[in-house]
Write a structure and sequence with these properties.
Chain lengths: 175, 197
Amino acid sequence: MSTPTHVYRKLRGGGFSWKGHGRLWRAEDHLLEVTSIYVSESYRRFFFQDVRAFIVQRTNLRAIWAAIFGGVGTVCALIASATWWAGISNSSEDWHVALYIPTALFGLAALVFLVLCVINLSLGQTCRCHVLTSTGWHALSAPTRVGKANHTQAEIISIVQAAQGPAPTAGPPPL
Amino acid sequence: MVPWTCPVCRAALGPYGLDAVQEAHCPSCRASLRGQVFAAWWTPEKIESKLDRALEGEAVCFFHPSNRAALACDACGRFICTICDLPVGARHLCPVCLSKGLGKEKLPEIIPRRFLWARTGLAFGILPIICLVWPMWVISGGTAVILAIISWWRPVSLVRGRQRWAAILAIVLGILQIAGWFGFILLISYSKNNSGK
């Protein structure tokens, strides 16, 4: 049996989900979604001839993650400040040095969460991409940021239109 | 034709102007959507309502001798009818070739997942060293070496290729772990002997 090998080109933008790290790859005739959990990869293919619609849905995950990271980071920073203040206030006591250990631990945790919060905010708005095929809608695991999704969308639109030709009418499909 | 529904709540959408740049909102769940509908959406589904019975002298399907052959299998070349035609991407396969491809993962178009042996070996090579669980090093190191050797012949990632570097690094780290484990054992026995004297 002849086995054609595909040359895949990585598309911009990845994304994390409970299924693992997702990324889109483009072959000559199809789009490949790769979901990886480091030791294994799962594949889903969307052939350009079969793609009926590609939709980007803006989500609020950026705000939710910012609130989680920011909230946990702030709590950790407050605990670190409190233990540090307690250590300073009781400097005459023998045990005051022990308070600097939670100060360091919570301070480090606060720094990590606040850095994650800043990274999350700097990556831009979150989104979810969907592909419609003859079997229905399929949510993609990547890209999950609007900036990267714009590039992916533009690329997919041009490839699919090249494969299928222009849509018969400019407007939306009838019900 | 596939019903035109919201991808989030699956509610039927009214004929609003879907645009690749301008966002529209689903009237049911208020999801912000933008995108493109392609020509395939308007293309009617291919419905094979009746079979073409083969006439005298016509090529027939290998699996259904009474049916007219519609095309040839792209893998084995057998003539097949519309029932036996199984499109896989741009190729058309017969059921036998498709099942062969499914069984031994010969068809890259239908492989659903791949276990990455080299990367697993690398994980066994790196993680025990980072976690400093040296009593386990002889087991994890051996596992890393074995997995890396197996990866040399096993199927690889469809997109990342064979990743020989991961296998080589796993072998190196595995050997280091085994050597480190024996080193610790020698060190402990040496220090015990010295303390006894």
